[in-house]
Structure formats: structure tokens, C-alpha cells
Amino acid sequence: MGAGAALEWTSFVAALVVLCAYTVVCGRFFCGFACAFGSLGDALRALYVRICKKRKKKPFSIKAEWMRRLSLVKYIVLAAVAVMCFAGVFTVTQGMSPWDVFSMLRAGNLKMAGYGVGVVFLVLIAAGMCLQERFFCRVLCPMGAVFSLLPVLPLFTLQRDRGNCIKGCRACTVKCPSDIELSADTAPEAAGDCFQCQKCIDTCPKGNIHIGMKRRKGNEVWLTVVRAAVLVGLFLWLGI
Known about the structure:
α1 packs antiparallel against α13 (221-238). By secondary structure, this protein is mostly helical. The relative contact order is 0.15. The protein has helices at residues 11-26, 29-33, 36-54, 64-70, 73-87, 98-106, 116-131, 135-139, 142-149, 171-175, 188-191, 199-203, 221-238, and strands at residues 159-160, 209-210.
């Protein structure tokens, strides 16, 4: 883009378009179940919580109010990446990307010469992942910013029957990694930050949370398998 070249239908562009279309239909299921970086964050947070329990200490978490403010940072990161791409200067970030370092580590490549800044960023992000569930996804991920801006069809938008809730119960919000407060009816304003992790559905003592598909629960095994199978099928079709 920065060089003014014609946009080609590459495998990256195809994957981006298909993932965006998939997210519009199924919500951020990819983020919740297939993203390698998100899985790394879940593993680090679980390890940190386990260590705290072993040491009989309460795990630290960033306050929800601060996380709501920090969640705006990902849009700044997305804008910065877009500006650098259009300006043709994105290549100057070579060696600074924590994603490149993460990919190299996954591939077993430990030759990090020239990637010092990227290593530092990855270590800092890993620390944030330990201290806050889904820290990277909520605060820094540019693709997360793209997905959160996309509309989600009512089919998989979470809803809650407030009339049957236990008075004062906030179990779903407390369990939610995005601190989402579901409204009584359809909550489209919450769709963008929902990772489709289904923790709110599992934790509700009254079973009041459901999706827009004929009052079915979003955590039904067959429904999760179907969405996963469609995602895998798309990956195979794209040759990923």
C-alpha cells in the first residue's frame, strides 16, 4: 500500500476477509478458541493463578475501570499500523514486533539477533497476560480492534433473561474476561468485545444466558463443534 502497488488477492488478504466475514456471523469465536496468542495468554494467566493459590495469595487483576480505558489502546495500535503501512515505513519496525518473536519461538528458531526490542515487548506483554485475563486481546491486539468494530449477527449475540436472575448476582460479569455487563435483551453493544468464551453461560446459576438462535445456549457442544468445524474448513480451504 505504501508503495502504491495494486492490491493483490494474496493468502493473507484472503484469510483477513474470510476471518472478518466469519466474525460477523459467529462473533469472535476465532479469538476465543483458535488464536495462538490468546491461548498463550490463557495459559500464562492460569499458571499465575495456580501459583498464587499454591502460595495462598490472591491473584492480582487490573480494575475493570482501568481495563475499559486501556482497551482503547488497541485502536491506537491499529491506527499506527495502518498509517505506517500507507506511509510505506512499516519495514522500519523489523525486529520490534512481538508477534514475529512469538512466531520464531513457536517454530523453534532461537536466533533473536536484531529482535531485542521485540523480545522486550513480548516479555512485557507476557507479564500483562499473567496479571490480567486476555490482556493482549483487550489492550494491544490490532486484529482485535478490527474484529471489535465489526457488527455481529443476532444469531450469536449473547442475551440474558434478567427477570429470573438472583437479586444482586453479577456472576456472569465477574467471570467475563471483558467485564461485559449483559443487558436484559439483545446486547449488540457488547458483541464487539465478547470472545465467545462462554464462561458467562457456564457460570450463571439460573441458566439465564443464551444466544439468539431459538433460545439455545451458546455452550451447547454441537453448536461449538459446528462453529469450530466451519472455521477449520475455512482454514483448509485457504491452505492455512
